Amino acid sequence: MIPEDLFYSEEHEWVRLDEDIATIGITDFAQDQLGDIVYVELPAVGDRVESGSVIGELESTKSVSDIYSPLTGEVVARNDALDGSAEVINSDPYGEGWLIKVRSLEDDPTASLIEAEAYAALTAD
């Protein structure tokens, strides 16, 4: 199921906007493709992230994958709970498995993102 109230990147990140703060995570599709996630590397609070740039990585039992920032801004929170239990990303990617929160520095942070229907089409077999 793809939540309708989120925005998505073609690199399989999701974005939930609350004013100028964007919560970012990876989609259920992405976690399913990765398999069991065992480690996550995230940027620090205060780091500036650029739309489209690599901001961290996910290590699973299958591979290591880059995490891309879906927007430009400043990291205001990171999900430190993932440091000891990265597997939460597999079990709850749209909830407790969120990665970072970013204060957007863009006029329209959703301009380069797609909505749920388009993301569903992107990931359809």
Automatic annotation (TrEMBL):
Record's keyword terms, sorted: Lipoyl
GO cellular component, as recorded: cytosol; glycine cleavage complex
Required cofactor(s): (R)-lipoate
Gene3D superfamilies assigned to the protein according to its UniProt record, in alphabetical order: 2.40.50.100
Cofactor binding: number and manner: Binds 1 lipoyl cofactor covalently.
Keyword Transit peptide carried by entry: no
Segments passing through the bilayer: none
Alphabetical GO biological process terms: glycine decarboxylation via glycine cleavage system; protein lipoylation
Function: The glycine cleavage system catalyzes the degradation of glycine. The H protein shuttles the methylamine group of glycine from the P protein to the T protein.
Protein name (database record): Glycine cleavage system H protein
